[in-house]
Design brief:
It is a single chain. The chain is of the alpha/beta class. The chain folds into two domains: 3-172 and 338-369, Medium-chain alcohol dehydrogenases, catalytic domain (Quinone Oxidoreductase, Chain A, domain 1); 177-315, NAD(P)-binding Rossmann-like Domain (Rossmann fold). It contains twelve helices and 18 strands. The protein has helices at 43-49, 96-99, 109-113, 165-168, 174-185, 201-213, 225-234, 247-254, 269-277, 301-306, 321-333, 351-360; strands spanning 3-10, 18-24, 31-40, 59-60, 65-72, 84-87, 125-127, 130-132, 145-149, 153-155, 194-197, 218-222, 238-241, 259-264, 279-287, 310-313, 343-347, 365-369. Helix 12 (351-360) links the parallel strand 17 (343-347) and strand 18. The radius of gyration is 20 Å and the shape is globular. The chain binds zinc ion (2 copies). One zinc ion is lined by residues 91-92, 95, 97-98, 106-108.
Length: 372
């Protein structure tokens, strides 16, 4: 028995999203049918719409879904119908990265998240009998229902029963990436300085986490004063507007011994290279911003080797969703990760408005609410 649902179909950058009737496959043994309640809008959705990431279109996007389990396959044991869940990226579970619980670096990341079908090529969604590209990040949550997998579905702990789905949904991608980069990938040490370049959802997630880690100072760099004000509210000790100030000079003056950590969310080569030049010995520059394909970075070799400095590519903040998402929820409930300040909700049928607000920078984290 299949499931009738409504989904926002992405036809590319030329056309707005359109909400249409679809049909979902039945969940297989290791899959979960989720009634979506809320779904965050992320820059990766925009990158796919604009085809900077070659997911085949038309497609159902959405990868920060949260909802209620409707049905589970026979091999799924960690969730049951009625449980509240958050979904994240999917992974294969049996490659050298998955073996050491680093699923964000899954050797099979592409087929498990971005080919428009299950990794074996079978479709999860149909429209009038024709297969439709879905299974985006193992979910495709811009819809009223989604087929997800045991591997990318995290159960919301009972202790968080009072938290709304719109608060929980966006934890599964950008915020997890920023927080994980600080707390896991770079393992920021107490008392060392960090500079965060770019204060969107990922950068602000990193700033909240840097405060948790006890980094000092915590320097936020952006070109929008409103974002910098939010960064300060969330834990930045210093803010620099790189339009009116010279970030390199300002950071040198604040941290004469150099930065312990620089975290780049901009993907702009010049900023990454400057950030590297500001590192103290053993300093790390963590990179999550996607540069244009073919872009090359240049570093001074003696400075790189001499001080044991590191350049670290980071995906998903090295998060293992079954471990890290509950940890973030704990931080949120204790008031240490107030990410709800970034959220603005939109009804599902205002999806195009929500995208516009996210792109213009007016809203850090738009979250769609599905009709009940
Ligand atoms: Zn995302
Ligand atoms: Zn894997």
């Amino acid at each position: 028995m299949t499931t009738q649902a409504q989904a926002a179909i992405c036809y590319g950058s030329e056309k707005p999203f359109s909400i249409e009737d679809i049909r979902l496959d039945d969940p297989r043994d290791d899959e979960v049918l989720v009634r979506i309640v809320a779904c965050g809008v992320c820059h990766t959705d925009m990158a796919v719409r604009d085809q900077h990431i070659p997911v085949p279109l038309p497609a159902i996007l959405g990868h920060e879904g949260a909802g209620v389990v409707e049905k589970v396959g026979s091999a799924v044991t960690h969730v049951k119908p009625g449980d509240r869940v958050i979904m994240s990226f999917d992974s294969c579970g049996h490659c050298p990265s998955c073996d050491i619980h680093k699923p964000t670096y899954c050797y099979n990341f592409f087929p498990y998240n971005w080919i428009g079908t299950r990794a074996d090529g079978s479709p999860t969604a149909y429209q009038g009998g024709t297969p439709l590209n879905a299974n985006f990040f193992g979910q495709s949550s811009f819809a009223t229902y989604a087929i997800a997998h045991a591997s990318n579905t995290a159960r919301v702990p009972d202790s968080a029963a009072h938290l709304s789905m719109e608060t929980l949904a966006p934890l599964g991608c950008g915020l997890m990436t920023g927080a994980g980069a600080v707390l896991r990938s770079m393992a920021v040490r107490k008392g060392l300085p960090i500079a965060v370049f770019g204060t969107g959802a990922v950068g602000l997630g990193a700033i909240m986490a840097a405060k948790i880690a006890g980094a000092n100072p915590i320097i936020a760099v952006d070109i929008h004063d409103s974002r910098l004000a939010l960064a300060k509210e969330l834990g930045a000790t210093h803010t620099i507007n790189d339009k009116s100030q010279n970030a390199v000079d300002e950071i040198r003056a604040l941290c004469p011994q150099g930065l312990g950590y620089a975290f780049d969310t901009t993907g702009i080569n010049k900023i990454i290279e400057q950030a590297f030049s500001l590192l103290a010995p053993l300093g790390i520059v963590g990179i999550v911003g996607a540069s244009a394909p073919g872009d090359m970075l240049t570093f001074d070799e003696s400075n790189f080797m001499g001080g044991g400095r590191r350049v670290m590519g980071i995906l998903g903040g090295d998060s293992d969703i079954h471990g890290f998402l509950p940890e973030l929820i704990e931080h949120h409930m204790a008031g240490r990760f107030p990410h709800d300040k970034l959220i603005k909700t939109y009804p599902f049928d205002a999806i195009n408005e929500a995208f516009h607000a996210g792109e213009s920078g007016e809203v850090v984290k738009p979250v769609l609410l599905m009709p009940s």
